Predict the structure of Thiamine thiazole synthase.
Amino acid sequence: MWDLEISKIIVEEFTEKLKKSLDVDVAIVGGGPSALAASYVLSKNGFNVIIFEEKNEPGGGTWGGGMLFNELVVEEDVEWFLEELDMKYKKTKGFISIDSVHFASALLYNSTKVGTKIFNNVFVEDVLMSKERINGVVINWAPVIRQRLHVDPITVKAKYVIDGTGHPASVVNMVIDRNLSIDLPLGKIREFPMNAKEGEKFVLENTKEILPGLLVMGMAAVSVGGGPRMGPIFGGMLKSGIKIANIIIENIDVEV
Ligand code: 48H
Ligand code: FE2
């Protein structure tokens, strides 16, 4: 009976996938462009990487381009990465312009192709911690959270957790809510008005490990560091993801 077999396949395969994802090298919270760049580099280097994305569609702020004009801009110094991901783009006025739907889908395709597992509709509601080190995340179905159902979550162990939640820096916020001190340059999470050039520099400088086991990248790094937003230019998001991947690659032998 086809109907029953289809159900069995889905349940068995998903369970298998989730079981393999309960103890990983890297758990990334949020499935935006920085997450997809980071996960691509990490997975390609043999790391076991998972992404939790609360929405049905991973990709974060990429799909809508600038003000729903579905084109976005990156700097020429990330051309090598677009090439590596086999993207189509146009060089214009000293920048690169790229169709935002193509950009999002190429990132998603390449990241998952090299082995990243993306769990969509999953919300990270807490972190797991021991001996002053963040060593995992606490997850629940996003619809459970949206419906405010009283359902307890489950945990996922990870050697490193990356906050890739964009503007709100949700994971760092959770950690602060737990009264753990994080050295925030401005004393609180805060973003400054638009300045594309400065913002693109700032995001890279502030991409780092901020507590043992917890790293920030992308717009979350800007909010945590207290810097300017940059609008619809996405090279910094890619470079931030690549930088965080390289930080982890250099440190993964850390005993947890
Ligand atoms: C699961 C979660 C949770 C949670 C949030 O915002 P993003 O696209 O992230 P980045 O940093 O890779 O890219 C930022 C870019 O899109 C952007 O906004 C830019 C460049 N703005 C400039 C400007 O001036 O505005 O993606 C974050 C993702 C989203 O898909 C959220 O749904 C998801 O994280 N998310 N997923 N559990 N607790 N919190
Ligand atoms: Fe944004």
In short: The pocket of fe (ii) ion (ligand 2) is lined by residues 61, 167, 219 (CB under 6 Å). The chain has a mean pLDDT of 95.
